[in-house]
Known about the structure:
CATH class of the largest domain: Alpha Beta
Helix content: 25-40%
Number of domains: 2
Order of helices and strands: HEHEHEHEHEHEEEHHEHHH
Distance between the termini: 29 Å
Shape: globular
Number of strands: 9
Bound molecules: phosphoric acid mono(formamide)ester
Amino acid sequence: MKAHLLSAADLTRDDALLVLDTAQELAQIADRPIKKLPTLRGRTVVNLFYEDSTRTRISFEAAAKRLSADVINFSAKGSSVSKGESLKDTALTLEAMGADAVVIRHSASGAPHRLATSGWIRGSVVNAGDGTHEHPTQALLDAYTIREHLAGGAGDLAGRRVTIVGDVLHSRVARSNVHLLHTLGAQVTLVAPPTLLPVGVEQWPCDVSYSIDAPLPQTDAVMMLRVQAERMDSAFFPSAREYSRRYGLDARRMAALPEHAIVMHPGPMNRGMEIGSDVADSERSVIVEQVTNGVSVRMAVLYLLLGGAPLVADEEESA
Ligand code: CP
């Protein structure tokens, strides 16, 4: 793997499988009475969040702590960013505190890349979501979840059919998933109204459909995307009701999926809009499992980027 994780497109098939296999090994720690390994003892992980987050921020914190790293949580709200401090000066401050890894979420696409290539910090940079660009650890945890359910928890996702539905235009989750799932051999179909597809989507390694109903009977995993109202500066669809009618996953549409198919959502959900509450809470939904898997996957990413002590030795030491 490279020194940073900025984009799912940077991951080779071997890189991605290494992360998934390592995450699977690390997931076993969650079943122990003491959910901790000493592998990153003495290392410092900074969570630098310029945008709101529940799942990603908490799971990176849990992941770093389970590997015994010291964790500094930085939220732009309540910090000197509100006094106008730049990303550069914030980064230099973190460097002065000895950050070994910086996990960054930012509203500006490219902010993690800037941090990684500026020379302001020496540690590894992990993209925890930048604007509408990428969210690579979300894609990794999604691939992990699909692999557990549809590929026996091993190998790649060759031949699996994944349908991603909704606000692709504003979704960093969709972009990262298309790259990673393609790398792992899956066939991806994006479904959205024409107004919610990005320019150039025809160059992405996936199919595109304006109809949700067409691909569902051949789908192994359907991933519903949040309608990101906060990033919409104009009317992209007539009304919430119309959007839900045309693109929402309700019980009737879920019944069109093959019996083995799973329902996913990266969260946070707009219940009743892109996904019905009954669908989100159904037996087919793996949405809560995605959150659980996020901790193991982020442990694996931190472990691999920071070159932690061998896992076998860790297990012996912590036994
Ligand atoms: N999926 C995801 O990124 O959720 P949060 O915004 O809560 O981190």
